[in-house]
Amino acid sequence: MEIYSLEEFKVELEKLVSNKSYKTLQQEIIDYFFNKSTSELCSGSRLNNSDDTPYIKKRLGGRGGFRCYFLLIIKDDSLYLMYVHPKTGSMGIDNITDESKAYLYKKVLKCIKSKDLYKLELTESGKEITFYKIS
């Protein structure tokens, strides 16, 4: 499984993990997304009706934790992280708007086509995520 992200995801993750209140976020992402099969990643709220390319909102870290939006392209064995936000704390929000969800979906499709993405990999220790620009 190859894992990619939009720049919005990268920027938001870096901003959040620099805040002590959200220090668990990076580990939550590693635990849920890395070294998993596509079938293990299909849980969460589907925001579209596609079986081949599900657009999913996933709860990480329990009820008050984080929400992560991603697109899973099963035939390519690729996952595209689009956005993440906390539910609580100083930067917490209940949910993003339907317009924001639609914008992210259109943007990820455009970025996949243009290869304007970051590839995510784990450091050798497996405790941190590194981003590599692929365009």
Topology summary:
Layout: E1 2-5, H1 7-17, H2 25-33, E2 45-46, E3 55-60, E4 66-73, E5 78-86, H3 98-114, E6 118-122, E7 129-133
What structural category do the secondary elements indicate? alpha+beta
How much strand?
25-35%
What strand order characterises the main sheet? 2-3-4-5-1-6-7
Pick out the low-confidence regions.
Answer: none
Shape: globular
Annotated CATH topology: YaeB-like fold
Number of helices: 3
Total strand count, please? 7
Distance separating the two termini: 19 Å
| CATH architecture tag | 2-Layer Sandwich
If you compute it from the alpha carbons, what radius of gyration comes out, rounded to the nearest whole angstrom? 14 Å
Could you name the CATH class?
Alpha Beta
Largest sheet: 7 strands, mixed
Helical fraction equals 25-40%
Q: How many domains make up the 3D coordinates?
A: 1
Mean pLDDT: 92
| CATH homologous superfamily designation | RelE-like
Order of helices and strands: EHHEEEEHEE
Describe the 3D structure:
- The structure is a single chain.
- With 135 residues, this protein is of the alpha+beta class.
- The chain has one domain: RelE-like (YaeB-like fold), CATH 3.30.2310.20.
- Helices cover 27% and strands 29% of the residues.
- The chain contains 3 helices and 7 strands; from the N terminus they run βααββββαββ.
- The two termini are 19 Å apart.
Keywords:
single chain; 135 residues; YaeB-like fold; seven-stranded mixed β-sheet
Please outline what is shown here.
This protein is 27% helix and 29% strand. The protein is built from three helices and seven strands.
